[in-house]
Amino acid sequence: MAAIRSAKKDLRQLARKSLAEISAESIVSQTQIALNILLSIPEYVSAKRISVYLSMPVGEISTTPIVENALCQGKKVFIPYINKAPFPLAGSHPIPLMDMMALHSKVDLEAFTRDSWGIPVPSEDSISERENCLGDTGRGRAEWIGIEKGEGGLDLIVLPGMAFDTGLRRLGHGKGYYDFFLQRYSGSRKKGIPMPCLVGLALKEQVLPDGESIPTDTTDWPLDKLIVGDGRLLQSNIRPKP
Prior knowledge:
Shape: globular
Helix content: 25-40%
Strand order of the largest sheet: 5-2-1-10-13-14-15
Order of helices and strands: HHHEHEEEEHEEEEEEEHEEE
Structural class: alpha/beta
Strand content: 15-25%
Largest sheet: 7 strands, mixed
Radius of gyration: 17 Å
């Protein structure tokens, strides 16, 4: 585990240097290419409830046009929200949890403020009134309510990352928010209900060369699909962790 953590840390440092050199023009161009692919895949077309990360101003595919398209298509859109107040979990120390909260409209999004990463975030006061993707409103123990009764849930999740490989592995920023959210989601769904389709978005500079791989352990969730800004669509024929 220590060796894997060290390898991930080294890879993140390399990724930061590479991302800092990508021009704004290239990100705009690659975003459009990735958007066209995402909007055409059957899993997105048929999805009624999706989660989309809200992108940073630089260094990754912009998700603003995805959010706008999904809202226009009448899809229910959920966005990540990191709870500032930690919640105690059985058998572990309290940690901040990531929930997926409803985004009401484009006007709602435009009212968000930006955090230290430049990511738009809803006001803390609004969270208690927003639908949680797991079937309730607000946060905290909402993950245990609703989804096991057939309410809530997601059809597709669009995930960010610092680096990816052609084996559909993903390197996040090191907080474990998405992996832990997916663990919670998996544990709260009804038996036989599939996990959401996990789709990664990558600039071409974020994808490791063929033959190289992201170091992973048993807590890391692989993607179902990876859309790259150079036009590639990488996908698995096997759904991971049913």
